[in-house]
Amino acid sequence: MLNKRRLLLVDYSDSARTILFKEISRQMPDLDIIACSTAREALTSVKRFEFEIITTSLSLPDMDGYKLIEEIRKSVKNRDTAIFVVSGDADTRIMGSNPDDTNAVTAYFNKSEGHKPLVNFILNFLGKNNQPPVKVIYVDKSATSTAITSAILSKNGIDFIHVKESSEALDILREDFANNNSCSIDILICDLMLTSQINGFELIQTIRNELGLDYLTLPVLLMTIEPADDEHTDFTGIFGAGANDFITKPFNEEDLLNRIITLVNIKRQNEALNA
To answer: Which parts of the chain sit beneath pLDDT 70?
Structure first.
């Protein structure tokens, strides 16, 4: 497993927190659940841990719920975490709020409907205890880079297929989609410098345009080298080609894993919301 799976419950009501904590713990005993009654407690946890899901009420004693979400989105660890708002006045707040604020909310739940819909959604979102292993296609022709990256992936239980050529990666993706009628690959990691026929940019463009796999369906992490003193990172080229993120070599294990976790969570959150 890549990291400890965590859920953050934020609600001023002792009874609401207790009910959710007990029911989710009963069905997912391996899930690390942190329950907070105030925004201050929640922000302390957010700075320390990375969560898969955060649920919060809007009425907190020390901070408005939307302000809390805004602060959470500023954190490095939980910028892309799924956030569920649980409130009796969610509809009113949605209609009266700034659209830029509500974009940060993954889903809303009406408190008057009881706790069961929220518990069921959380369990389905997390996949209970049956979350499939992370599946990666890794494209790199460098023997040194391949050895280092493969060791990190293997050590952390990540299921990956390594190929040297872009054409091989495209064949795997086409076969995968034909067999599953969807993309079962969680993330594609590719080096920028591949063959002269199809480099990293062109591979990503082919995935986005020809195969029709968008940012949420197949996240892409591009590997680049550190630019020289008289050079600069080509952000326009990287993101314009369709990459979700990039990482420069040499990189450490923690940095690579954090980027993989973030991108895999984005894909699986999208799948859960569209199931």
So the answer is: 1-4, 89-103, 127-132, 195-196, 226-235, 275
Torsion sign over Cα 71, 126, 139, 152? positive
The identity of residue 53, as a single letter, is: I
Structure tokens of 185? 């690959």
Q: What are phi and psi of 119, to 5 degrees?
A: -60, -45
What's the whole-model pTM score?
A: 0.56
Is 232 part of a structural domain of the chain?
A: yes
CA distance 213 to 261: 19
Specify whether the backbone of 147 is left (phi greater than 0), alpha (psi in -120 to 50) or beta. alpha
Give the domain CATH number at 205.
3.40.50.2300
For residue 117, being part of any structural domain is answered with yes
Boundary residue ending a domain (70, 95, 126): 126
